[in-house]
Amino acid sequence: MADNLTPFTLKHLGNAVPSATIFLLVFFLCMSFFFQFNSAIAQNSTGNVSVNSNSDMTNVNSTVYTTGSAISRLAPDRVVISIGAETTDKTANDALSLNSGLMNNITSELRNHGLRSNETRTSSFNIFPLYNYTESGTRLNVSGFTVTNTVQIESSNLNNVSQWIDTAVASGANSINSIDFSVSEKRLEDTRSKLITDAIDNAKQKAEAAASAVQLNVIGVKSIIVDGSTTVPPLPPQPFFREAAAAQGGTASSSTPILAGEQEVSVSVSCIFTMG
User: Per residue in 237-263, pLDDT tens?
Assistant: First the structure.
């Protein structure tokens, strides 16, 4: 066989071997590039699915923080009145006797006008001396004694407030120290419970508006914090003094106008809602 190979044949065979090698090398390079390209496409495809999945998870775990509030106004159902008498005389005994007579008359007349015995109590009682002073401020001798006695009325009968004040003043009371209206604790608690529900609804409405703006829906609640409630009582009437009323032309026949007003109760909440 080797004898049949001519120099021409050997020359062309030598030239063909490198050509075949180059062809195979190019073929393998192309195939390698092809497989790498397909692999890259597969990897890119898998990455897009992961991003969508992550995007979906982000939507599910998205939250929105809102606050809500609710307010209600209640008519008071309780009143506290502070009524007193102040007397002065030369001796402590005389001042006390005069004061005791006034206070006994006051409390007796108040009971005749609907005040119950369990609705009143003594809130303060004082006896103190009065002194004469020199122009320079040096204290000298005792000039007399003053006695003050104050009773406190606590009642749910708001209709009799004006009548009780008129009666007390007509009976000898010379100071009405305060009149405070309030709402009973049970009514306050019942109102606060309802306001908490209303405040949460208010916060949810805000959350739904925010979610809708980003094409999402509120799907749950993560946390609710009741920030607390506030109670604002009506402004109390100013202290009343019989001497001041007389100076302004007041008469016993004029009924003292007392307005209970309304008490404001408010509740606020902080909420975190989930969106999806």
Answer: 544 444 444 454 444 456 788 888 889
Give every CB contact of residue 149 below 8 A, 6+ residues apart in sequence: 84, 85, 99, 100, 103, 122, 124, 125
What DSSP designation does 240 have?
B
Domain assignment present for 107: yes
Rounded CA-CA distance 160/163 in Å is 5
Which residues lie across from 232 on neighbouring strands? Answer: 264
Domain region containing 21: 2-61
Say if residue 123 is in the same domain as residue 172.
yes
User: Residues with Cβ < 8 Å from 134, sequence gap 6 or more?
Assistant: 140
Answer yes or no: do 67 and 194 share one domain. Answer: yes
Number of structural domains in the chain: 3
**242 lies in a domain?**
no
- pTM greater than 0.85 (yes/no): no
Q: 3-state DSSP call for residue 229?
A: strand
pLDDT tens-digit map of 198-226: 999 999 999 999 999 999 999 999 999 99
Residue 222 lies in a domain: yes
On whether residue 254 sits in a domain, the answer given is no
Q: What's the maximum distance between 2 C-alpha atoms anywhere in the chain?
A: 164
| C-beta of residue 272 within 8 angstroms of C-beta of residue 65 | yes
- Rounded-to-integer distance, Cα 68 and Cα 210, Å: 14
Residue 29 sits in the same domain as residue 158: no
Q: CA angle, corner 78, sides to 180 and 190, nearest 5? A: 120
Burial group, residue 195, by CB count within 10 angstroms (0-12, 13-18, 19+): buried
